[in-house]
Prior knowledge:
The complex is a heterodimer. Chain A is mostly helical. Among the domains of chain A are: about 70 residues; about 30 residues, no CATH class. Helix content of chain A is about 50%, strand content about 5%. Chain A is built from 6 helices and 3 strands. The radius of gyration of chain A is 33 Å and the shape is rod-shaped. The C terminus of chain A is likely disordered. By secondary structure, chain B is mainly beta. Chain B folds into 2 domains: about 170 residues, Lipoprotein localisation LolA/LolB/LppX (outer membrane lipoprotein receptor (LolB), chain A), CATH 2.50.20.10; about 100 residues, Phosphorylase Kinase, domain 1. Helix content of chain B is about 15%, strand content about 45%. Chain B is built from 4 helices and 21 strands. The longest helix of chain B has 14 residues. The radius of gyration of chain B is 22 Å and the shape is globular. Chains A and B meet through helix 5, strand 1, helix 6 and strand 3 of A and strand 1, strand 2, strand 4, strand 5 and strand 7 of B. Strand 1 of chain A pairs antiparallel with strand 18 of chain B.
Amino acid sequence: MHEDLIQKISQFLDDELPEEESLRLLQKMRTHSELAGKMRRYEAIKQAIKNDELISAAPDFVASVSSQLQQEPTYLIPNTTRHWIRHRHFGRSHKIAAAAASVAVIAFVAHTQRPEPASPVQIAAVKETAKPAPQLAEVKASRNAYPVNQQISDYLQAHSSIYTNSQADFQPYAQVTHYSQK
Amino acid sequence: MILVVRFFLIIFCSIGPVSAEDSDLTAKQILANMVQAMRSLNYEGTVVFFRNGRLESMKYSHASAPDREQERLISLNSPLREIVRNGDLVSCRYNDTQTVVFDHRPFEHSFLVNFSSHLDALANLYDFALSGEEDVAMFPAYVIDIQPKDEFRYARRIWVEKLQFLPLKITVYDLSGALLEQVVFTEQHVKEALPFSEVKPEDANRSGRAIKESVPGALRFAVKNPPAGFKEVYFARRTMHDSRLPVEHLRMSDGLASVSVYVENKNPEIESGPRSVGAVNFYSRNLDDYQVTAMGEVPPLTVKTIAEGIGLKNGGR
């Protein structure tokens, strides 16, 4: 290693190296691991001289912090109380922008959470592995065979306005609901 | 001088509007205000339903008069339709066919959230907590956490607008904390008055039809030992799907979550056991000659407990 580089490291640690040269030195350290190692050793020596305690960071400390920073989510809406919107005195453009932004966020969240984007909602028959499937008792009362999915669909539709049948001869209310039990 | 200041302070405090800006409201008080605001205010906006992995954007309006209420939902996407709730009667008009379908739903109060006004009873089943304040649709809102006290119901979170106390966002979470459902306003406006839709029940005699007809009859089964708080709120003997025999429909509710119980003749094709679709769980079992199914937006354990607690009265006759 050149003596002048070692000299610059020493000056850098003593805060005596000009700014431009400091930047060049730091850039050089990115590609020269030997230089970076030398820097850490000098820093440790300097710290040991000045203090009784030595706190040594792991060699990959900076890289791991940088990696974690890249994985941090981006918060689109800061969770702070904004006094300027406490009252409902907004222009039309603000309202439209807010609505559009909200829909965009919701659409993004829904897109990322939807398990099967192209397929209709499915009824997942939950398997009970602990016990065998129960035997159906003898059917005493007669009834016509009726599709299971349609029967479940009818139940949902009767349960709530938001679950309605889209396969029968009437259309959905608040939500289209399909069933395709496999 | 001090007496004068005190006098004006007392007057100011006594005549000020009920607002969270100047008083420390509890979560329960905010919810009580929300229930009242939902019924008494005229408001409209755009609301997005996120259920079962699907998004549905609709225009929403609520009109209120001293003697009546009306909710309207107008779809923004195909199939274009308008759903109107006039008290117990729900109607749906389809744009393409101009047909109107009517249904009697006395157990529902809102398209947004069916929240009981008996908060004291709900407080025995859920913990209410004011967990913070956030902005929704550019309105500052209280964030109310509704945490169940047992494993028989799901947690909810409601964002309540701070000035008018209208709900801006409602979310439902499963037992692991994962989001199941979401209803959120992207814009909301409070009005002095809103027009009532012209849809009338008489229209059913022309182009509409009732999709279900209740058949009078006594309940032939009973639910033993249901989860705490679940009470019978509605019963109908309906003609459903193509069965010639009516289906008995019992609806139970704890004031927030609800479960429907259906009892009908056995369908050999339907298997006993649990099923699920989105936030809704089912549990079916056979009971003598009948098939019993409990379903609702509750955990699987709840529908299983209710289904297994059903017993026939007098052999189901």
